Amino acid sequence: MCGLAGMLLPAPVMEQAVLEQLARRMGDALIHRGPDDSGVWADASGGVALAHRRLSILDLSPLGHQPMASNDGRYVLAYNGEVYNFAALRADLEALGHTFRGHSDTEVLLAAFVAWGLDATLQRANGMFAIALWDRAEQCLWLARDRVGKKPLYYGWAGEALVFGSELKALWQHPHFDNDIDRDALTLLLKLDYIPAPHCIHARCFKLMPGRVLRLDAATVAAGADAHRPDQQQVPFWNARERMQQALAQPFVGSDAEAESQLDGVLRDAVALRMVADVPVGVFLSGGTDSSVVAALMQAQSSTPIHSFSIGFEGSHHDEAPLAKALAQHLGTDHTELYVSGADALAVVPQLPAMFDEPFADASQVPTALVAKLARGSVTVALSGDGGDELFFGYGRYQRALRNWAMLGRVPAPLRRWMAAHSTTQGEASRTGGLAALLAETGARGIGDVYRNRISRWRDPAAAVKGAAGAGSFYDLADPLHGAGSPADAMMLADFNTYLPDDLLCKVDRTSMAVSLEARAPLLDWRVAEFAWSLPLSMKHRDGVSKYLLKRVLGRYVPQDMVHRPKRGFGAPVSEWLKGDLRGWADELLDPARLAAEGVFNVEAVVPLWQQFQQGERKWHTHLWNVLMFQAWQAHWRHVRAGVERG
């Protein structure tokens, strides 16, 4: 795992030494992502520079140093991530006559680009990655991101230069980065708890979407951000919607036992590939189905006890640590657990703006940061169970949305139209909870509309942000599968495309990389995803049991009483925090005079929610946490930029 950064100029107007110095400064902002080594490469004649920070996982020797050039000199690569099937790719390349100096996957990738080209290589690669590849022959920069969006990649304009990096803090180091807040993107934060790709909190900046490739050259840079169309110029080499449609068109037709055996086989291989490393490897173990499957398959393929990690919360009614401990004892793992207090959790909150450096409001970021720090004390790589809910119908909200969709289908169309017309209310504070939510769904065109209502925080975020018109996301599609599949498939696809990469995987990436820990997710192997999409819903949810087939696989390794456990999630008591130790912090950030002076939020939209919450009238903590995370981030961002300008 590593960090990358760099820039591309519209014309070769910067001296080599200046290019290198600026790129190094951008790269050094990512030292937490790569504390083991650093490198810079620049070409003044091409107006390009690449920077890299290395966390050594494969080939710990200097032969894995980046940026790395291909043997023929055509390509220069700065790369973040792991290609798990690099050994198989290397064997194929050696058969074609390629030779290798070391045994890093970076060197294999470069040889593959030479032999097969960029697109064909990405099609063959099984892994997580963000790539910046300079092509000397074509004088162009390629940016690419893995299929599901495990690794992040930001890009945008700083003055006339195009800058890019694993995190925004690298882009901030450019002296001409004066990009203000994208207020339409901010409305997405209020609605979803995060900002989905390709949107970014900064104007003139973007996130590369999962499974996409972007070609940039001097002419593209010179055209500027106003001419950039990310939905058109970010070209997919793997498209989740198309792959799901193909899987649905050729569904799995075998028995439960055959499906169980096939899923077990592909999962075992996915886990085995992700256990390959030249450093210690462990697993996050919550006691839930997904992490339990990963831990069981790791231990089944290891000759020694694997490292497992869990945290517990003192005094919590939703503590999964005892479940994780019991499962670890059954599997025989080398288990480490840590019980944390409320004070331990609250100590993380001030670190969040610097950890994420784009406002992010999923409060489970706090316990995730704690378990990442715990694991880093013993290992450099940790496997997680991310992806099981999105692939195997694990969320309770799926069932609730389907019930509402079925109920609405029984309401006559004229009555639905009348109810929809009369369900609009003025402002968040006037809404009446569940009744308003159900009424809002009466105008739904499809399951996508119903589900978006289920997962939205602020229903009218544009009313809270000054000068905002709002922005859309994949959730705005009423029928994301264009008539294919079922409503259940549509909801899982929407989460796979949006919630998974931009919330869950973002959360794990930032919290793990903050402590220089690499996190790997075997359930998100593309082969697992495509097999899951081919399964009928009855193999994912049956007789009230969610993740039915995944639990059958788990039942091969642990007793049934460890298989069928209620889903508890990995949350944080935000409401209690805001009523207790964080009240003063929130008061300061939500002070009406401060909000008015900053000019981002409409005071009359935000302050009443804080007042009602304090008085115990309404449970506005999720709405308020979104605003507070932005406010804290904004203060951090302005502080960092002031330092850059002084420096």
From TrEMBL:
<comment type="pathway">
    <text>Amino-acid biosynthesis; L-asparagine biosynthesis; L-asparagine from L-aspartate (L-Gln route): step 1/1.</text>
</comment>
<dbReference type="Pfam" id="PF00733">
    <property type="entry name" value="Asn_synthase"/>
</dbReference>
<dbReference type="InterPro" id="IPR001962">
    <property type="entry name" value="Asn_synthase"/>
</dbReference>
<dbReference type="InterPro" id="IPR051786">
    <property type="entry name" value="ASN_synthetase/amidase"/>
</dbReference>
<dbReference type="InterPro" id="IPR029055">
    <property type="entry name" value="Ntn_hydrolases_N"/>
</dbReference>
<dbReference type="InterPro" id="IPR033738">
    <property type="entry name" value="AsnB_N"/>
</dbReference>
<keyword id="KW-0067">ATP-binding</keyword>
<keyword id="KW-0436">Ligase</keyword>
<dbReference type="InterPro" id="IPR014729">
    <property type="entry name" value="Rossmann-like_a/b/a_fold"/>
</dbReference>
<protein>
    <recommendedName>
        <fullName>asparagine synthase (glutamine-hydrolyzing)</fullName>
        <ecNumber>6.3.5.4</ecNumber>
    </recommendedName>
</protein>
<dbReference type="Pfam" id="PF13522">
    <property type="entry name" value="GATase_6"/>
</dbReference>
<dbReference type="GO" id="GO:0004066">
    <property type="term" value="F:asparagine synthase (glutamine-hydrolyzing) activity"/>
</dbReference>
<comment type="similarity">
    <text>Belongs to the asparagine synthetase family.</text>
</comment>
<keyword id="KW-0315">Glutamine amidotransferase</keyword>
<keyword id="KW-0547">Nucleotide-binding</keyword>
<dbReference type="InterPro" id="IPR006426">
    <property type="entry name" value="Asn_synth_AEB"/>
</dbReference>
<dbReference type="InterPro" id="IPR017932">
    <property type="entry name" value="GATase_2_dom"/>
</dbReference>
<feature type="domain" description="Glutamine amidotransferase type-2">
    <location>
        <begin position="2"/>
        <end position="219"/>
    </location>
</feature>
